[in-house]
Structure formats: structure tokens, C-alpha cells
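Exercise 7.
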Amino acid sequence: MASKSTIAKMAHIEKLVKKYEAKRKELKAEGRYAELALLPRNSSKTRHRNLCKLTGRSRSYYRKFGLSRIKLREFAEQGLIPGMRQSSW
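Solution. The predicted structure, written as C-alpha cells, is:
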């Protein structure tokens, strides 16, 4: 499980990305890279990392569900995800 500080940090970065998204796009289109460099570093999309909404795990994250593979499997086994069931052949 990720630390609370990591989860809080990613929430802060997500806010900054949304706040500066339009301005970054505008500066890139005009080729004004010097001004782009003056914006906060954490406002770049590449700084944001997807985390599991329950555990904060960063690896094997499923965008569609917002969960890591471990929690996704637990929920699927309990029948909490509609349309998903255990495979058998």
C-alpha cells in the first residue's frame, strides 16, 4: 500500500496538470519554450502517475476501473464488477 503522502502528492500534481493544461498547450503551439520552462514542473502530464483508488499501488493499474490488478481480481471474485467473471475452459 502506498503511503498517504504519495497519494496526496499525486492528487496535487493532478490539480496542477488540469490548471495549466490549456496554457501549456498554447505555449507549445506557439513555440514559446522559454516561458513553458517557467511553469511549475509538476504541471506536466508526464509527472502524473496513475494510482489504485483503494491501495495507491502504481503498478498494473487498469484505467477502465481505476484499480490495480490485485483489487480488480478481488472485486471480480466477489461479483462486484458487472459482466466480469472467472474464466474457465
